[in-house]
Automatic annotation (TrEMBL):
This is Sigma-54-dependent Fis family transcriptional regulator. It comes from the Bacteria. Residues 142-370 form the Sigma-54 factor interaction domain. Residues 4-116 form the Response regulatory domain. Residues 387-408 are annotated as: Disordered. Keywords: ATP-binding, Nucleotide-binding, Phosphoprotein, Transcription, Transcription regulation. The keyword Transcription applies. The modification 4-aspartylphosphate is found at residue 53.
Length: 465
């Protein structure tokens, strides 16, 4: 069966690119650069699928076309502004998938194949998947347009309207609580409380009282009845951060609360029903903790009904400038100044691995803003661990004499070779930083190195040409 796809994008080049991709796989393709043209195409013939940009330069958008066409065929939306709110809006309104530009060919083809396969199932009498009923809320606080983040946005949009327990995994500082808050904010419970609990911050007796509450006389200082945080989260979301640090006895009580939907205050005779959605998070490998006997297997499976992975910053380097700018705007608003980055500063930031992830980046930006001499954030304003090394001319003079780089009367080429070698060593072979120190662009650096016989290396693989 020949498939017919309608591509809608106000950029004619994008339309032609998708036409080439799809026709190469045997699909027929029609294109439209305006919503009006798309509607005319749809009126003339039936399509198996529509793939449209969201942000069309017209009164109507891709979301409007989604409303028009979704009852007739699957619709995939593409956007150059990949955000959580955009993903939620697209999937809420019934889009089959949501893809962020620049996209990978394999990603688009896989989405189209999946949508067409689902259309075939619907023809055989199977009901198509229902769009999640999610209400669009305010900004999530999550920043990023990388493929990893857009994939995370789609998972958040899909899980938010459900009642499922969610386990959020990721390294320290990646933004796991932001993910939990985004799930809550886009869920039917958004009008209820969001209660965060750090499971590793309190000793076991205090943690139990904090979570489940107590009655008067339950222990020496219990002079009155007190609701626990679990009850405080009634009709809302309880976020259990650092769940991997929960002591084993508390794991048993947590499992019962999850399974039964009820909690018993310390000293109380009877439990009470509580309607709470639980989202847990940890930077530990819980499967390894289970194997080591430090975490209950039954609790692990109860918590991991849905598991989301938050990528570390080093796996989403394309998002670093967006994050840095967002943090700088926050600081600028706090201090009442207009702050901006010198381009070289963003280059230095991009060369650093940020083992502390987004949280460390935020700290670095705040430090730089407080140490900047004016409104421009320069590389020298960054913490010492990030500052580029400023090489000095090596001392080639005999021992005991005054430093003199010309003592052996080198040729200009030899002196240039020595200096280039020294700069490359000083910046650990990072080509972009070496070019900045030398005051040239990277292409000039390559030509210089070839002329002087200096080998360019980058042992961290961060700056490949």
């Amino acid at each position: 069966m020949t498939r017919h796809i309608l591509v809608v994008d106000d950029d004619a080049a994008s339309c032609e690119l998708l036409r080439e991709i799809f026709t190469a796989r045997g699909w027929q393709v029609s294109t439209a650069t305006t919503p009006e043209a798309a509607r005319l195409c749809f009126a003339r013939q039936a399509f198996d699928l529509v793939i449209s940009d969201i942000n069309l330069e017209a009164e109507a958008t891709g979301l409007d076309l989604l409303t028009d066409f979704r009852a007739h065929c699957p619709v995939i939306l593409i956007t150059g502004f990949g955000t959580l709110d955009a993903a939620v809006a697209a999937l809420r309104d019934g889009a089959w998938d949501f893809i962020s530009k620049p996209f990978k060919v394999d990603e688009v083809v896989a989405a189209v194949q999946s949508a067409l396969a689902r259309k075939d199932e619907a023809r055989k009498g199977e009901a198509p998947a229902a769009a999640p009923a999610v209400g669009l809320a305010d900004a999530s606080g999550l920043v990023g347009r990388s493929a990893a983040m857009v994939a995370l946005y789609k998972e958040i949009a899909r899980v938010a309207p459900t009642r499922s327990t969610v386990l959020v995994l990721g390294e320290s500082g990646t933004g796991k609580e932001l993910v939990a808050r985004a799930i809550h904010r886009h869920s039917p419970r958004s009008g209820g409380p969001f209660i965060p609990v750090n499971c590793g911050a309190l000793p076991e007796p205090l943690l139990e009282a904090e979570l489940f509450g107590h009655v008067r006389g339950a222990f020496t200082s219990a002079v009155a009845d007190r609701r626990g945080l679990w009850e405080e989260a009634h009709h809302g979301t309880l976020f259990l951060d650092e769940i991997g640090d929960l002591p084993l006895p508390m794991q048993v009580k947590l499992l019962r609360a999850l399974q039964e939907g009820e909690v018993r205050r310390l000293g109380a005779a009877r439990p009470q029903q509580v309607d709470v959605r639980v989202i847990a998070a940890t930077n530990r490998a819980l499967e390894a903790e289970v194997a080591a006997g430090r975490f209950r297997e039954d609790l692990y499976y109860r918590l991991s009904t849905v598991t989301l992975h938050v990528p570390p910053l080093r796996q989403r380097r394309d998002d670093l400038p967006l994050l840095a700018e967002a943090f700088l705007r926050q600081v600028a608003q706090t201090v009442g100044r207009h702050l901006w980055f010198e381009p070289a500063t963003l280059t230095v930031l991009a060369a650093y691995d940020f083992p502390g992830n987004v949280r460390e980046l935020q700290s670095v930006i705040e430090y730089a803003a407080l140490h900047a001499r004016d409104d421009v954030i320069r590389p020298e304003d960054l913490p010492l661990k990030l500052q580029p090394v400023k090489p000095s001319v090596p001392d080639t003079s005999p021992a005991g004499s005054d430093p003199n780089p010309f003592a052996d009367l080198p040729t200009l080429d030899e002196l240039e070779r020595r200096y280039l070698t020294y700069v490359l060593e000083a910046v650990s072979g990072h080509r972009t930083r070496a070019a900045e120190v030398l005051g040239v662009d990277r292409r000039t650096l390559y030509r210089m190195a070839e002329r002087l016989g200096v080998k360019l290396t980058d042992d961290r693989g961060l700056d490949e040409p």
